Amino acid sequence: MTRPAARPARILLADDHTLVRRGVRLILDSEPDLTVVAEAADGAEAVAQARSLDIDLAVLDISMPRRTGLQAARELARIRPGLRILMLTMYDNEQYFFEALRAGASGYVLKSVADRDLVEACRAALRDEPFIYPGAETTLVRTYLDRARSGGPLPDRPITEREEEILKLVAEGHSSKEIGDLLVISPKTVERHRANLLQKLGLRDRLELTRYAIRVGLIEP
Q: Could you tell me the pTM of the whole model?
């Protein structure tokens, strides 16, 4: 008796560039064991989709409007702890790599070589194995994950997750009222967070906050 084939892994794909999503979808849907069942254009939409859909893997761009892929990954790790997460990025940057691991991702794929690495990375993530773009040491990944799982000390973050959310939305040009509505907090609380950000980062105004947000990859220039 022939055993029925296992169903393909169901993937949520999030990227704010339609052409990128289309290309990545073509790569994934051409594989018999992978299928894209949902797409999102920003991190907030990705979280909403993951709440309501049966998915096995989320492939998230790091830089997206409203909520970055890293912010979305943190939320998904909280609300869907069994969900595998893979980061897709144009940045060959060690800081982003470690932030991705901290956020709960098991892999980090460069867009420039997605046609070569993405399928392998998806399969590794679904096996709960770490994946990193060639050139970095897998042992480094395993050491970091072991430290994180055992409660060992991790590198300090310069700002809190909430401050990061505020920073991103300020840099995108949202008013305090708009930010308050998006995050369900008062405009006064937004202003307090903004003042704390300026003080912590040694910056003077919205323009400098925006430059900082670009530098650390929260928004694209």
A: 0.69
Q: Using a CB cutoff of 8 Å and minimum separation of 24, what contacts does 121-124 make?
A: 121/86, 122/9, 122/11, 122/28, 122/34, 122/57, 122/59, 122/86, 123/33, 123/34
Which class would CATH give 161-215?
mainly alpha
Instruction: Enter the CATH code of domain 9-149.
Output: 3.40.50.2300
pLDDT tens for the chain, 221 residues long, are 444 457 899 999 999 999 999 999 999 999 999 999 999 999 999 999 999 999 999 999 988 888 889 899 999 999 998 899 999 888 766 667 777 888 888 888 888 888 888 999 999 999 988 887 665 555 456 656 666 666 655 555 678 888 888 988 998 899 999 999 988 899 999 999 898 888 888 888 888 888 888 877 777 76
